[in-house]
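Two proteins were folded this term; both appear here.
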Amino acid sequence: MPKVAVGGTFQYFHDGHAKLIEKAFKIAEDGKVHIGLTSDEMLHKSHSIDNYENRRKRLLKYIKEMGFPDDRYEVTRLNDPCGPTIEEDFDYIVVSPETYPVALKINHIREEKGKKPLEIVYVEYVMAEDGIPISSTRIAKGEIDRHGILKKNIEP
């Protein structure tokens, strides 16, 4: 039974986040998905971020709406970018282009500790209708909604 790691801040649960989570569950098959949710202490973003508990509640709501059973996943607090992937046994880590360097770092540390590297599953960004990736920053700025639909005309 595969053990899959995926992580993020999940400020505005958007289509890019959904794609990562769906991929993690697909790879896990009958195994378990471990979703690391960035702690308040770890955040350094250019826009305001909701607190951990509110982001956790929204994340759980969306996972439930996606139809994944409660016993197939767990959400844990990430106090550092690597989380439990350094010490615990995982088979896969699902990453976006933004988090790919972290997966490389995790595997480097794991190899130094004599552990087998994680298989990195790379998931491309989901593009908004303007061809630019959907991101929580863009949603916070009011440029797009969580599905990548433009909310206003953006000056070039």
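Next, the second protein.
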Amino acid sequence: MDQPTSCLSHVLIFPFPVQGHVNCMLKLAQLLCREGLHVTFLNSDFIHRRLLSYTNIHLSYKQYPNLYFETIPDGLPDDHPRTGDRVVDLFNSIDTVTKPRFMEMLIARRFSILDRPPLTCIIADGIMCFTIDIGRELNIPTILFRTISASCFWAFFCLPRLIEAGELPITGQSDMDTLLTNVVGMETFLRLRDLPSFCRASDLTDRGLQLVISATQLTKSAHGLILNTFEELEGPALAQITNNISKLYTIGPLHVQLKARVATNIKLTCTSSSSLWEEDRSCIVWLDQQPFKSVIYVSFGSMTVLTRDQFMEFLHGFVNSGKPFLWVVRPKSVAEDYQIPEELLEGTRQRGYIVEWAPQEEVLAHPAIGGFLTHSGWNSTLESIYEGVPMICWPFYADQQVNSRLVGEVWKIGLDMKDTCDRVIIENMVKDLIETRKDEFAKSARLMTKLARKSVSENGSSYCNLDRLIKDIKLMRNGN
């Protein structure tokens, strides 16, 4: 006999409306649905339209009759670029437009309609902490999901201490290579230049800086914190976080956890892309023709914007390296118009392949890939770790500066190229990664891959933590 809907758990998942955040939170939605929970996924109108345009999302999610999609405005016009250099605009519009609309939707019980149970809890993006107070007012527990690394979250958590100690703000006289002494557990490797990009504001009243400080401190008042990482990867940072936040769920890498669990159920064999651009699968055909571990894959993610000069430095470096390269150049990801110089055309034709967007997980798993030149976004970093692909890191903003330092200095699975964009350095790093030091990096990468795979296997740390999260959500339904 079917249970009445009032006896079922119903989770509202509410991501910050950009590609990387939507990507991993959609995977969590699938995982929760697979375990019998009802999930409403609240997306911005803009993001949802792009998902409908470029993915088979509704076809794939027919497997999950307990998954529902709702939309909410993000407050920006459709022609706004929504890139990393303009992300403060998104913060502001969410505060003025999305926040009051979200409150109205909850008060009207918009998400508890038809055959859906009442909301058990909210899982909200960790930089939208207004959900905590709104949830508390309506007696709905809120769990926050930070889509950044644990190490970056801990660096954010320590910002008040850095300011009090005089290590921030950064001024024109600051030595960017100075080791920081007030991020506990990271004193031996974290430099001023490795702090998240928001920390480079010379004015401590900067809107972006203040937002990440307040959002991180407010995490302590949430019902719990979810991180897309695993204990074996970021143990020291997680130990510090646990001292300050009692309910912590490390459940990553989520993209692998989803594949592993879905594969065990013959009724649920399909997962959906959550790409906001059309994936050009011709690059897979091109990769099939390349030698084993010979190609450098290049992607700067969904938010990075290059100058024309930076684009040209990268192109010169790739062509001059003599190595095959697959480069994702997202529409409008270069700030100015450009034309490939005549002297680079032949080398680009012979060894390069440029697409607007690629099926990244499949690309990184391809045997022809020998390295990944990345913006060091956390999803990309985890995907590369899982596939054992060494990285060259060129971070753009947010958490990416911390992640690139971990790759180069702590995990030793690549090279950190932050704050430089020079064709000679790019050429030499590509050669180092693909040729000179390939065995060194491959050995470290294989170890990390082994740890990642163990964490999401049955009885692994992330596998058990996801089970604990699901159990705790079901207990919330009973008022505990």
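Residues 266-271 have pLDDT under 50 and may be disordered. The domain at 281-435 is CATH 3.40.50.2000 (Rossmann fold). These notes refer to the second protein only.
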